[in-house]
Amino acid sequence: MTASEVLDLAGAASLLLGALFSLVAAIGIVRLPDLLTRMHAATKPQVLGLLLVALGLTLVLRDWSAVAVLALVVFAQFTTAPVAAHMVGRASYRAGQVHTDLLDADELTDAVDPDTGYRPNG
Fold it and tell me: Any transmembrane segments, and where (predicted)?
């Protein structure tokens, strides 16, 4: 087995595993009960799935221009997904769409007025 065949096989396995993670994320978005768990399903496995797909494409294509574009895509996903999830989580908490009885810890109780959704002192 040549090195090229090994890289193609590793790339195919990575693509398949990345697609599986993306499928799990999509199923989680549809099946999970509340906003925060759906948000978790939308960010964690989806980002890992994208990383594995990009790795698989890198191993299969073996072209520096493709690697540069894929690295840019992964960087953009790594920087925007946590920020977007944080903003959606805080906005949904302020809008009262979070089931606080399902939370293990609620650190926003003192920071957000339940009636208005904004800080009590400002």
Answer: 12-30, 42-61, 67-88
